Input
Amino acid sequence: LVFMQFNRDATGTLHPLPKPSIDTGVGLERISAILQGVRSNYETDLFKPIFEEVETICHIPYGKEARTDVCMRVIADHSRAATFLISDGVLPSNEGRGYVLRRIMRRAMRYGKMLGIEGPFLYRTSLKVIELMQEAFPELRETEAFVSKVIQNEEERFCETLDSGLKILREEIEGLRKRGQKMLPGEVAFRLYDTYGFPLDLTTDMLQEEGLSLDEEGFRAQMEEQRQKSKLAWQGIGEGKTKEVYRRLAAQGVKSSFCGYDVMECESTIVAILKGNEVVPWAEEGEEVEIVTEKTPFYGEAGGQVGDTGVMYQQGFSLEVKDSLKPLEELIVHQVRVKRGKVSQGMEAILKVDPRRRRATALNHTATHLLQAALREILGDHVHQAGSYVAPDRLRFDFTHFAPVKKEELQRIEALVNEKIWDNAEVEIKTMLVEEALQTGAMALFGEKYGEKVRVVKVSDFSIELCGGTHTRRTGDLGLFKIVAEGGVAAGVRRIEALTGEGAYRYVKAQEERMETLALALKASPEEIAAKLDRLLQHQKELEREVESLHARLSHQEMAGLLGLVREVRGVRLLSARVEGKDLKRMRELVDQVKEKIGSGIVLLGGKNQGKVILVAGVTQDLVGRFSASDLIKKVALVVGGTGGGRMDFAQAGGTEPEKLDEALKAIDNLI
Output
């Protein structure tokens, strides 16, 4: 039992709670166990259907043996956790909550292998979870296909990595034997565990079978290091990365209210000037500092939208606002450079946002809302925002989807967004209680912290989202929406980059100018470019075929000429010849061709390229026991001041004295 009686504030002082309470820990599963008269949560009807699905897959009845029962419980429990996490927008990854999800899933998969299950199976138990829970959690029905695809994809990847892990462990064991060592380093076991999801107990078992042991202390040290990294990843961009001075200001009650939804210029009092991690009383010309005011029209970077820039001034000073941040919920910080005068805490200042930059950013932010709605309509309801970047010159939108977006789909998405732009619908923005907002069907970003009241941004019946960013008044303000790139950024996450308004116009104009340049070069109108290029490519292919035919005839003649130079030296057929105008690749091809033609013998070709000597030698397989191409070419290369090497049947060399090439080609006679 947990008795909750006090609230500890930022100073450490305890305050009695208005309503003390007792946490009994009796959740849904324990209540179900009590009401159904069973001894364990796993015996309730919350788990039985999942066990039945596992029994169907592995052909082992639940309750037969304690060891297999544990495996089934792990699979059932982890199937539920994975299903709900993925449905809520978490995806398997190597950091933060995604890493926790991956570990949960891979643990369930390993227990499946212990039951003798081969291949993906967890996606099937996940479908059973959805079937069981969908009445209470209807959102599971909407994400069913996506959840199943994510789990199956992760299972297939894990099967591959598990095989890779086995191969690596066998290689490490072989290496230990060769070195006469008896202990596997902890870092190797951890790499297998962390990167390949390779079970530690399986590593230990395989080592014991070989009479080897594991450096458990080293493994634990690596695990602790990973925990620390994971803790930092969980902190994300929140308090873990918030400068200490910001937290001190917040503890002192310093706040800055945002008035920029309604105005882009206002007058306010400077309440703090920061330099580094310290509060300073003033800043002079040339200094770069951070300034906090009582209120501000500057949007602090948050929710993927970049911060505003602009100016802050008064009669005695002028500041350039280079960026605006929102490190804490009620704190907006202006990063400034003092251009003129001296600014002090307590002074009044006029704050003015760069209106052109703000408007361009607002266009792109509204576009991300239209884009997400279009993606969900064209690709499916499994699409959820996985990240975004909204700047004045471009927008980037990351979303959950497991395959590259096809060209036709991208065209439909772009067309749908533009259709909504040309409808010139009103962008309605309302502030309401978060529960009320969610009941309207507004989409919330997973992992985002929302206050008691939220802003709801709605575009007709097409898009409705919770959003604290700045937006345009009507969709028609965007003018044009243009997708410029689409690609993958992580497993199950795709990214679209796009432009709107002036940026989209400039992009289209640049494409048009490139088209005109191409048309001029082809001496065709823009409409005729495709046909003209097609004809040129066809003509090029015909010319290439003619060139290949000519090369074949020349090669035949060249080969005949070389074969005519083959002679016999001490019972061995030998070709030692000079070839002109050939690069190393062509000379190697000639050596192979001559070897094939003569059947048995030694070939040495020499030539010059950019003032240096190239030598290539070959020995047919029947003579490899008597002669080495590598040994022969090393000795020949000495004549031209060079060196070389290679295999018994093939070698190459270079030299710096081309005037001695003929002498080198003759020198091979004395080596046979």
User: Anything to note?
Assistant: The two ends are 94 Å apart (CA to CA). Residues 565-671 form a domain with the Diaminopimelate Epimerase; Chain A, domain 1 fold (CATH 3.10.310.40).
